[in-house]
User: Fold Fatty oxidation complex subunit alpha from Paraburkholderia caffeinilytica.
Amino acid sequence: MQTLTMHVDAQGIALITLNDPARPMNVVGPAFIDDFIEAIERVATDPSIVGAIVTSAKPAFMAGADLKHLMSLFDAGVSRQQAFALSRRASVEMHRRLETCGKPFVSAINGLALGGGFELCLACHWRVIVDDPKAVVGLPEVNVGLLAGSGGTQRLLRMIGVDKALPLLLDGKSVTPQEALALGMVDAVVPATELLPTARRWLIETPNPVRKWDTKNYRLPEGAGLLSSSLATTYSMNVAKVGAKTFHNYPAPIAILDCVFEGALMPFDKALTVESKHFARLMSGPVARNIVRTNFVNKGLADRLARRPEGVPKFDARKIGVLGAGMMGSGIAYVAALAAIDVVLLDATQEQAERGRDYSRKLLAGAVERGRRDQASADAILARITATSSYSALADCDLVIEAVFEDKSVKADVTRQAEAVLQKSAFFASNTSTLPISELARQSDRPERYIGLHFFSPVDRMPLVEIIVGKQTSETTVAQALDLVAQLRMTPIVVNDSRGFYTSRVFQTFIHEGMRMLEEGVEPALIENAARFAGMPVGPLAVLDEVSIELPWKIVMQSREALGDAYDLPCSYDVMRRMLDEFKRPGRRGGGGFYDYPEGGKKRLWSELKSAFPPVAPQPSVDEAGKRILYIQALETARCLEEGVLTHAADADIGSVLAWGFPSYTGGTLSLIDAVGLSTFIEECERMAAAYGPRFKPSAWLRERAIRGHLFHAVAGHASEAVA
Ligand code: NAI
Assistant:
């Protein structure tokens, strides 16, 4: 047995200690399941063993499923039957066997126990947990598009009741030991030193425990099905809630509701079969695969700097300069100070710089007020930020991040002033959201040390940084920029230089398409709802009002100036022009845009919008409008890959989900194409090109990929392609 040890003491109590030597945390994978089944059989069949305690040698008891293993199953195209068999092995051969083997099992939960780890605890006859708020427990499988498929849903509902179980299963929320005790998810909370003695005492006192659902005539106290009046309300309320939250793009919450509803009506063993069936459906469908791939496996690889050039010594930023203490600069200064980096925050005047530093002061004061941080640590963090208007303060910085106005000449000016005092070894980064990095680098005395670090707003809540590699940027600079992002505990993607890079460029297609629909006569409410039903966090018109229509307009003007006739005006050019020139409605901060913002009231679509852009008949279906919004973004992403702006499909997916909230059920912009199937995607784009315009026309490169059956990610035997 590799993943656990078993020691039987003089009283015949077996101590099973989970301790996977290959991993920092114990996880549920095939090796563990084999080992644990073997351990259960020994306890069950060895007459000298009276019962078993399960604990862990690691700080955590056990995390959930081994996501890497899950991914390998997804990539191998796991079928519904195979997924069902996997669930049954863990559910029946492992947990149910443990529960019915005739010997008592206690879990002594010494740390966090989540997902499959907590399902194991639920299967044990008794649970004692350490009194440590970090030792959280729960069933968060819904967050990866799955459900607890080893008996978790069925045991939880029978232990704590449908009412309390459903929110935990549907939100995937974990709870502290004290909360778990109050809910009935664990039986005792004790200090660490008492964990094993308490477990041992219970075992000796309870030689033949039987779970209540295995007793004769067991019924759920609150009843089951729709005949139970209280449950009928619970189910219908939750169905409505799930619908409103997910727009039915995520099958897991509904599968969980099904499992609980059906399972509560059945004897326990039958209910386990139902659970496995639902689990198998989720596991063999696209959504769990997409979420696990992008949000967990590939994001994890990005966080561990999978894209870092090799052979460059690790870089540790001690002190950074931030030029421009506006919205972005002050946010960057805050996250750097939080990461224990000293910051010189520079603006044109001392007063403006101080105002930028006040941003951190405000956030830190909030954290102190909410009890998340003590005053001393807040003071220490704030003390790391020096506000100044003097360039000489930058002399010993390891790097500088420029976040002044989006204006080439202002950027050139501050770059020259900073580099005049900056040590030669330091690198220089621009936080520009649209200006080509290679062009900005021309103003630098160290173009090979010049790079784009594109943060998102608000910096402290947006975990992504888009690293933009200019034509001359050296590998050392890329490696050091990646090290900095890791130091800031953020997720990097690496892209090549182009106008708008990757994220801004694709995001623009979303808002332009929304405005274009308006111009074509699509009802504004339909546009907004279709985007949200498709999974976008906010409709395109509402987003435009937030960022202001002036922003994309400025990008269009700059691009036209830079590229002249080579620049194709966006499909929404006239809408922007009319909103700004004719109606003087730039957005929320400008007094209103596509929406009105009545004081003290809720925003509503601008009352004149329909006379400005009259709706036509017939209207497109919500599905068609939603598809149009997602496909234009996916297509533009494919173009970025074709042009080499993106080099890895994983960057595209992670960037789209984290930067602008492209729906995670799709796995991101390129995973969406894989899930739809490239040939189908191309056919649909052709159809849309005929209906809506040539911007939907797929390129020869994309067609060629379709002919070769070349997916962006590996699935079912297709070769994985990381590099385009
Ligand atoms: P902002 O207008 O809030 O801040 C710019 C700051 O730069 C101001 O405090 C201004 O006083 C200062 N500044 C201007 N000229 C200066 C000079 N010569 N010397 C020193 N300081 C000077 O702008 P924001 O939104 O923070 O944007 C900054 C940069 O970040 C821009 O390049 C923008 O494109 C980019 N960006 C903005 C995002 C956003 O959501 N606002 C997102 C990502 C990037």
Q: What stands out?
A: The CA atoms of residues 198 and 489 lie 39 Å apart. Confidence is low (pLDDT under 50) at residues 716-724. Residues 323-329, 347-348, 352, 403-406, 410, 413-414, 431-433, 454-457 surround NAI (CB under 6 Å). The first strand starts at residue 4 and ends at 8.
